Amino acid sequence: MNPSPTTLLRPDLRGFAGYRSARSSMAGGDTWLNANESAWPNPADDDARVRRYPDPQPSALRALMATRYGCRPEQVLVGRGSDEGIDLLVRAFCRPGGDAVVVTPPTFGMYEVCARLHGARVVAVPLVDGERGFACDFDEVGNAALAAGARLVFLCSPGNPVGSRLSLAAIESLALRLRGRALVVVDEAYIEYSEGASAVSLIGRQRNVVVLRTLSKAHALAGARIGCVVADAELVEVLQRCQSPYPVPAPCAELACRALDDAAWSDTLGHIAMTVAERTRMGRAISTLPQVRRVYPSSANFLLVRFADAAAVLERLLGAGIVVRDMRGYPGLGDALRITIGTPDQNDRVIAQLAALEAVA
């Protein structure tokens, strides 16, 4: 039996209809006087694009995302980056003070932030730092989820900040084990930089698999704040009832549509290939420096690096105007920095600064 993931919804929300906006309940017409919008455009809005409220779920954007991600439009919920998807899932499936989520630190901090703000318990199953990088102990994750009665398990693949990719077979086995008990949420913010299939391919077989995607990374639209949840169509319908009325500004939706068309995607593929090549080059170059303890293998657009003196490295890079991410506050990463892969020139500057630090050490 493969039950609908909506059976895991908070009991008090099972009959919840949400807010029906004027735009979502509109049925034709050419004189729209139903949403209390201004009858005149703002002078700053030259083509009057934003006088009207936007489509709550832009159909053209959903269709393009579905094509790009290999699913149906009704399986896509567009939102403000993938962060909104995380928050929606926690609010819809976890009772404040009652239900739990499972996370695998070191990982993206918003899973825990959203859970704590909502009053959900957080159960941590740390990643295992091994010879091939950080790995997920799927057996222990399943044990922890069942013991805690968790409603959500958050997995990041490729992981942030660790860069490692998770096995689809292992994700599917976990989802099968937790079927009817919990949703397995796979955050694929960086998947364009990795090889292999997306967990979207599992949704047809395992209805409790949920995938988060974003246009902020490979598609270079971080400022537009566009992402989506890809999931079973029934679950998407439920999440939409829990979403704010107008989550996606019209100009951002239009920009996203242009970014997802074939011409833009061709350019994006070129940038992805360059990033992957630079990731390899930079990893090899800095791994030989005495200050570097370890460069972790990465399937994302960054490298996680352990240093003998991370504070000194950070100070050196900042002094040269190079800003990297300080990871020392993350569990088990007290000596680590995360370095985003930039242009070849930017990467050369990082390599030069690290080499110069060694020369004066």
Any overview of this molecule?
It catalyses: L-histidinol phosphate + 2-oxoglutarate = 3-(imidazol-4-yl)-2-oxopropyl phosphate + L-glutamate. InterPro entries: Aminotransferase_I/II_large, HisP_aminotrans, PyrdxlP-dep_Trfase, PyrdxlP-dep_Trfase_major, PyrdxlP-dep_Trfase_small. Residues 38-353 form the Aminotransferase class I/classII large domain. One of its GO terms (molecular function) is histidinol-phosphate transaminase activity. This is Histidinol-phosphate aminotransferase. With 361 residues, this protein is an alpha/beta fold. It is 35% helix and 15% strand. The protein has helices at residues 59-69, 81-93, 110-118, 138-148, 168-177, 233-241, 250-260, 262-287, 310-319, 344-360; strands spanning 76-79, 100-103, 121-124, 128-130, 133-135, 152-156, 183-187, 209-214, 227-230, 292-295, 302-307, 325-326, 336-340. The strands form three sheets. It has a seven-stranded mixed β-sheet with strand order 1-9-8-7-6-2-3, with helices on both faces. Strands 10-11-13-12 form a four-stranded antiparallel β-sheet. A two-stranded antiparallel ribbon has the order 4-5. Strand 4 and strand 5 form a beta hairpin. Helix 1 runs parallel beside helix 7 (250-260). It is globular and about 70 Å long. The relative contact order is 0.14. The mean pLDDT is 94.
